[in-house]
Amino acid sequence: MKITLLDLFSGIGGFHLGLEKAGFEVESYFSEIDKYAIDVYSNNFKNLTYVGSVTTINGKQLPRIDAITFGSPCQDFSLAGKRKGMDGERSSLITEAIRLIEECRPRFFIWENVKGTFSSNNRQDFAAILQAFANIGGYRLEWQLLNTKWFLPQNRERIYLVGYIGDGSRGQVFPIGESATKIDELQRQQGSTCTLTTRYGADGNGSYITERKLNAQKIKVNSATSVGYEEATIGDSINLSVPTSKTRRGRVGKGVAQTLDTHCNQAVVENKIRRLTPIECERLQGFSDNWTKYGKEKGLISDSQRYKMCGNAVTVDVVAAVAKNLKKVL
To answer: pTM, whole model, 2 decimals?
Structure first.
Protein backbone atom coordinates (compact mmCIF):
# COMPACT_ATOMS: atom_id res chain seq x y z
CA MET A 1 0.00 0.00 0.00
CA LYS A 2 1.58 3.27 -1.15
CA ILE A 3 1.13 6.31 1.08
CA THR A 4 2.40 9.87 1.24
CA LEU A 5 3.42 10.61 4.82
CA LEU A 6 3.74 13.91 6.64
CA ASP A 7 6.15 12.93 9.43
CA LEU A 8 6.10 15.67 12.09
CA PHE A 9 8.71 15.87 14.88
CA SER A 10 10.21 13.07 12.83
CA GLY A 11 13.37 12.42 14.83
CA ILE A 12 15.33 9.58 13.27
CA GLY A 13 12.35 8.07 11.49
CA GLY A 14 10.72 5.61 13.90
CA PHE A 15 7.26 6.22 12.47
CA HIS A 16 8.50 6.01 8.88
CA LEU A 17 10.36 2.75 9.52
CA GLY A 18 7.45 1.27 11.51
CA LEU A 19 5.05 1.96 8.63
CA GLU A 20 7.46 0.29 6.23
CA LYS A 21 7.69 -2.75 8.49
CA ALA A 22 3.89 -2.93 8.45
CA GLY A 23 3.91 -3.16 4.67
CA PHE A 24 3.40 0.44 3.60
CA GLU A 25 5.44 1.92 0.77
CA VAL A 26 6.22 5.39 2.07
CA GLU A 27 6.98 8.69 0.38
CA SER A 28 7.86 11.04 3.20
CA TYR A 29 7.60 14.78 3.79
CA PHE A 30 9.37 15.16 7.12
CA SER A 31 9.58 17.98 9.65
CA GLU A 32 12.26 18.28 12.32
CA ILE A 33 14.47 21.02 13.78
CA ASP A 34 17.34 18.97 15.28
CA LYS A 35 20.15 19.10 12.72
CA TYR A 36 21.56 15.69 13.66
CA ALA A 37 18.19 13.96 13.46
CA ILE A 38 17.56 15.58 10.06
CA ASP A 39 20.92 14.28 8.85
CA VAL A 40 20.33 10.74 10.11
CA TYR A 41 16.78 10.65 8.66
CA SER A 42 18.07 11.82 5.28
CA ASN A 43 20.81 9.19 5.33
CA ASN A 44 18.48 6.25 5.97
CA PHE A 45 15.50 6.83 3.68
CA LYS A 46 14.76 7.47 0.02
CA ASN A 47 11.74 9.25 -1.46
CA LEU A 48 11.75 12.05 1.08
CA THR A 49 11.42 15.82 1.21
CA TYR A 50 12.40 18.03 4.14
CA VAL A 51 9.70 20.63 4.86
CA GLY A 52 11.19 22.57 7.79
CA SER A 53 9.67 23.39 11.16
CA VAL A 54 6.11 22.34 11.94
CA THR A 55 5.27 25.98 12.66
CA THR A 56 5.95 27.06 9.06
CA ILE A 57 4.30 24.23 7.11
CA ASN A 58 1.26 25.12 5.02
CA GLY A 59 -0.73 21.94 4.51
CA LYS A 60 -2.51 23.36 1.47
CA GLN A 61 0.83 23.70 -0.34
CA LEU A 62 1.68 20.01 0.11
CA PRO A 63 0.64 17.21 -2.26
CA ARG A 64 -2.14 14.86 -1.20
CA ILE A 65 -1.17 13.55 2.27
CA ASP A 66 -2.41 10.06 3.23
CA ALA A 67 -0.98 9.89 6.76
CA ILE A 68 0.32 12.21 9.47
CA THR A 69 2.46 10.90 12.34
CA PHE A 70 3.72 12.87 15.29
CA GLY A 71 5.29 12.29 18.66
CA SER A 72 5.07 15.90 19.80
CA PRO A 73 7.45 17.12 22.56
CA CYS A 74 6.45 15.50 25.83
CA GLN A 75 8.48 17.21 28.57
CA ASP A 76 5.52 19.22 29.83
CA PHE A 77 3.43 16.07 30.28
CA SER A 78 6.15 13.80 31.65
CA LEU A 79 5.82 12.42 35.17
CA ALA A 80 9.51 13.24 35.59
CA GLY A 81 9.10 16.85 34.49
CA LYS A 82 7.47 19.98 35.91
CA ARG A 83 4.04 19.00 34.52
CA LYS A 84 3.14 22.30 32.84
CA GLY A 85 0.82 20.38 30.54
CA MET A 86 -0.80 22.23 27.67
CA ASP A 87 0.36 25.51 29.21
CA GLY A 88 3.95 24.52 28.48
CA GLU A 89 5.71 26.00 25.48
CA ARG A 90 6.78 22.65 24.03
CA SER A 91 3.55 20.72 24.49
CA SER A 92 1.57 23.47 22.79
CA LEU A 93 3.19 22.37 19.52
CA ILE A 94 0.54 19.65 19.33
CA THR A 95 -1.83 22.39 18.16
CA GLU A 96 0.33 22.76 15.04
CA ALA A 97 -0.13 19.06 14.29
CA ILE A 98 -3.89 19.38 14.79
CA ARG A 99 -3.89 22.36 12.42
CA LEU A 100 -2.13 20.30 9.75
CA ILE A 101 -4.58 17.42 10.15
CA GLU A 102 -7.38 19.91 9.47
CA GLU A 103 -5.57 21.34 6.44
CA CYS A 104 -4.45 18.02 4.91
CA ARG A 105 -7.34 15.71 5.88
CA PRO A 106 -5.20 12.52 5.76
CA ARG A 107 -6.70 9.04 5.68
CA PHE A 108 -5.24 8.42 9.12
CA PHE A 109 -2.97 9.91 11.78
CA ILE A 110 -0.99 8.46 14.68
CA TRP A 111 0.06 10.37 17.80
CA GLU A 112 2.49 9.07 20.44
CA ASN A 113 3.16 10.61 23.84
CA VAL A 114 4.19 9.83 27.41
CA LYS A 115 1.98 8.11 29.97
CA GLY A 116 1.83 11.33 32.01
CA THR A 117 -0.41 12.89 29.36
CA PHE A 118 -3.30 10.88 30.82
CA SER A 119 -3.02 12.54 34.23
CA SER A 120 -1.63 15.98 33.39
CA ASN A 121 -3.62 18.80 35.06
CA ASN A 122 -6.12 16.38 36.60
CA ARG A 123 -6.73 14.77 33.19
CA GLN A 124 -7.94 18.04 31.74
CA ASP A 125 -5.12 18.20 29.18
CA PHE A 126 -5.87 14.82 27.65
CA ALA A 127 -9.59 15.64 27.55
CA ALA A 128 -8.79 18.89 25.75
CA ILE A 129 -6.60 17.08 23.23
CA LEU A 130 -9.33 14.52 22.54
CA GLN A 131 -11.86 17.31 22.07
CA ALA A 132 -9.55 19.05 19.62
CA PHE A 133 -9.19 15.86 17.57
CA ALA A 134 -12.94 15.29 17.68
CA ASN A 135 -13.62 18.85 16.54
CA ILE A 136 -11.77 18.16 13.28
CA GLY A 137 -14.69 15.92 12.36
CA GLY A 138 -14.90 12.75 10.31
CA TYR A 139 -12.31 10.67 12.19
CA ARG A 140 -12.82 7.65 14.39
CA LEU A 141 -10.51 7.91 17.42
CA GLU A 142 -8.93 5.06 19.37
CA TRP A 143 -6.11 5.06 21.91
CA GLN A 144 -4.22 2.72 24.23
CA LEU A 145 -1.23 2.71 26.58
CA LEU A 146 1.33 0.36 25.00
CA ASN A 147 4.63 -0.90 26.39
CA THR A 148 7.76 -1.50 24.35
CA LYS A 149 8.62 -4.49 26.56
CA TRP A 150 5.82 -6.45 24.86
CA PHE A 151 8.04 -6.39 21.77
CA LEU A 152 11.58 -5.55 22.87
CA PRO A 153 13.41 -5.67 26.22
CA GLN A 154 12.75 -2.04 27.26
CA ASN A 155 10.11 -0.95 29.77
CA ARG A 156 8.71 2.08 27.92
CA GLU A 157 5.04 3.00 28.35
CA ARG A 158 3.59 5.35 25.76
CA ILE A 159 0.12 6.45 24.68
CA TYR A 160 -0.72 5.75 21.05
CA LEU A 161 -3.77 7.48 19.61
CA VAL A 162 -5.00 6.90 16.06
CA GLY A 163 -7.57 8.69 14.01
CA TYR A 164 -8.88 7.23 10.77
CA ILE A 165 -11.75 7.72 8.40
CA GLY A 166 -14.19 4.92 9.13
CA ASP A 167 -17.12 3.80 11.20
CA GLY A 168 -18.15 0.97 13.49
CA SER A 169 -19.05 0.65 17.14
CA ARG A 170 -16.03 -1.26 18.45
CA GLY A 171 -12.25 -0.94 18.43
CA GLN A 172 -10.65 -1.95 15.15
CA VAL A 173 -7.03 -0.93 15.83
CA PHE A 174 -6.87 -1.47 19.59
CA PRO A 175 -6.55 -3.31 21.87
CA ILE A 176 -3.07 -4.60 21.24
CA GLY A 177 -2.11 -6.99 24.04
CA GLU A 178 1.10 -8.45 25.36
CA SER A 179 -0.10 -11.94 24.49
CA ALA A 180 -0.42 -10.90 20.86
CA THR A 181 3.23 -9.94 20.57
CA LYS A 182 6.48 -11.82 20.62
CA ILE A 183 9.53 -11.17 22.75
CA ASP A 184 12.56 -10.12 20.78
CA GLU A 185 14.65 -13.04 19.53
CA LEU A 186 17.74 -11.48 21.08
CA GLN A 187 16.17 -11.53 24.54
CA ARG A 188 15.03 -15.14 24.17
CA GLN A 189 18.47 -16.29 23.13
CA GLN A 190 20.51 -14.41 25.69
CA GLY A 191 18.09 -13.69 28.54
CA SER A 192 19.54 -10.19 28.89
CA THR A 193 18.76 -6.66 27.87
CA CYS A 194 20.69 -6.73 24.63
CA THR A 195 23.83 -7.92 22.90
CA LEU A 196 26.91 -6.78 24.77
CA THR A 197 29.25 -5.21 22.25
CA THR A 198 31.56 -2.21 22.74
CA ARG A 199 32.57 -1.92 26.38
CA TYR A 200 32.52 1.41 28.14
CA GLY A 201 34.34 2.35 31.30
CA ALA A 202 31.87 1.78 34.13
CA ASP A 203 31.39 4.08 37.08
CA GLY A 204 31.03 1.45 39.77
CA ASN A 205 32.08 3.58 42.73
CA GLY A 206 29.17 5.98 43.06
CA SER A 207 27.16 6.42 46.22
CA TYR A 208 24.24 4.58 44.64
CA ILE A 209 26.15 1.28 44.83
CA THR A 210 26.44 0.14 48.42
CA GLU A 211 27.59 -3.45 48.08
CA ARG A 212 28.84 -5.79 45.44
CA LYS A 213 28.67 -9.56 45.79
CA LEU A 214 30.74 -10.96 42.96
CA ASN A 215 30.33 -14.56 44.07
CA ALA A 216 26.56 -14.23 44.08
CA GLN A 217 26.71 -11.95 41.02
CA LYS A 218 24.40 -9.47 42.75
CA ILE A 219 24.61 -5.75 43.34
CA LYS A 220 22.63 -3.75 45.89
CA VAL A 221 21.40 -0.42 44.55
CA ASN A 222 20.09 2.31 46.85
CA SER A 223 16.35 2.70 46.42
CA ALA A 224 13.40 4.08 48.39
CA THR A 225 12.02 0.62 49.17
CA SER A 226 11.16 -0.89 52.54
CA VAL A 227 14.62 -2.50 52.75
CA GLY A 228 16.43 0.52 51.30
CA TYR A 229 17.78 -1.13 48.17
CA GLU A 230 17.04 -3.28 45.11
CA GLU A 231 19.16 -6.18 43.90
CA ALA A 232 20.54 -6.42 40.37
CA THR A 233 22.19 -9.44 38.83
CA ILE A 234 23.67 -10.47 35.47
CA GLY A 235 21.49 -9.27 32.58
CA ASP A 236 19.61 -6.67 34.64
CA SER A 237 19.67 -2.95 33.95
CA ILE A 238 20.31 -0.15 36.44
CA ASN A 239 19.02 3.41 36.07
CA LEU A 240 21.82 5.75 37.14
CA SER A 241 19.98 9.09 36.90
CA VAL A 242 19.81 11.29 40.03
CA PRO A 243 21.97 8.81 42.00
CA THR A 244 21.71 10.68 45.33
CA SER A 245 17.89 10.84 45.35
CA LYS A 246 16.25 9.61 48.57
CA THR A 247 12.82 9.04 46.98
CA ARG A 248 13.49 7.20 43.72
CA ARG A 249 12.69 3.54 43.34
CA GLY A 250 12.43 1.07 40.49
CA ARG A 251 16.06 1.60 39.50
CA VAL A 252 16.58 -2.06 38.58
CA GLY A 253 15.09 -3.63 35.46
CA LYS A 254 14.87 -7.39 35.74
CA GLY A 255 16.07 -8.62 32.36
CA VAL A 256 14.86 -5.48 30.58
CA ALA A 257 16.19 -1.97 30.16
CA GLN A 258 14.19 0.84 31.69
CA THR A 259 12.93 3.72 29.57
CA LEU A 260 15.75 5.16 27.50
CA ASP A 261 16.27 8.89 27.95
CA THR A 262 18.28 11.43 26.02
CA HIS A 263 21.39 11.02 28.21
CA CYS A 264 21.39 7.21 28.40
CA ASN A 265 21.51 6.98 32.19
CA GLN A 266 21.28 3.23 31.75
CA ALA A 267 23.76 0.52 32.65
CA VAL A 268 23.79 -3.24 32.30
CA VAL A 269 25.27 -5.76 34.76
CA GLU A 270 27.84 -8.21 33.40
CA ASN A 271 30.87 -9.00 35.48
CA LYS A 272 30.84 -5.25 36.14
CA ILE A 273 28.47 -2.33 35.59
CA ARG A 274 28.78 -0.59 32.24
CA ARG A 275 26.82 1.91 30.25
CA LEU A 276 24.65 0.74 27.37
CA THR A 277 26.23 1.32 23.96
CA PRO A 278 24.60 3.36 21.17
CA ILE A 279 24.02 0.15 19.20
CA GLU A 280 22.20 -1.40 22.16
CA CYS A 281 20.01 1.70 22.46
CA GLU A 282 19.20 1.46 18.74
CA ARG A 283 18.20 -2.18 19.15
CA LEU A 284 16.05 -1.42 22.20
CA GLN A 285 14.10 1.03 20.01
CA GLY A 286 13.81 -1.37 17.07
CA PHE A 287 16.37 0.23 14.74
CA SER A 288 19.12 -1.63 12.91
CA ASP A 289 22.70 -1.45 14.15
CA ASN A 290 24.42 1.89 13.56
CA TRP A 291 21.21 3.54 12.34
CA THR A 292 22.35 6.76 14.04
CA LYS A 293 26.08 6.44 13.42
CA TYR A 294 26.21 8.44 10.18
CA GLY A 295 24.50 11.47 8.71
CA LYS A 296 24.09 12.19 5.04
CA GLU A 297 25.98 15.48 5.24
CA LYS A 298 27.86 15.50 8.56
CA GLY A 299 29.32 12.00 8.41
CA LEU A 300 30.16 10.35 11.73
CA ILE A 301 27.76 11.29 14.56
CA SER A 302 28.99 11.55 18.18
CA ASP A 303 27.82 9.06 20.80
CA SER A 304 26.18 11.82 22.86
CA GLN A 305 23.99 12.79 19.93
CA ARG A 306 23.23 9.13 19.18
CA TYR A 307 22.04 8.60 22.78
CA LYS A 308 19.88 11.71 22.57
CA MET A 309 18.26 10.66 19.29
CA CYS A 310 17.52 7.13 20.52
CA GLY A 311 16.01 8.48 23.73
CA ASN A 312 13.73 10.80 21.78
CA ALA A 313 12.66 8.16 19.24
CA VAL A 314 9.45 6.17 19.03
CA THR A 315 9.83 2.39 19.16
CA VAL A 316 9.70 1.01 15.62
CA ASP A 317 8.12 -2.33 16.57
CA VAL A 318 5.27 -0.67 18.47
CA VAL A 319 4.52 1.62 15.53
CA ALA A 320 4.57 -1.41 13.21
CA ALA A 321 2.01 -3.25 15.37
CA VAL A 322 -0.33 -0.24 15.35
CA ALA A 323 0.17 0.29 11.61
CA LYS A 324 -0.58 -3.35 10.77
CA ASN A 325 -3.97 -3.06 12.42
CA LEU A 326 -4.60 0.27 10.71
CA LYS A 327 -3.73 -1.29 7.38
CA LYS A 328 -6.47 -3.89 7.86
CA VAL A 329 -9.01 -1.13 8.54
CA LEU A 330 -7.92 0.87 5.49
So the answer is: 0.85
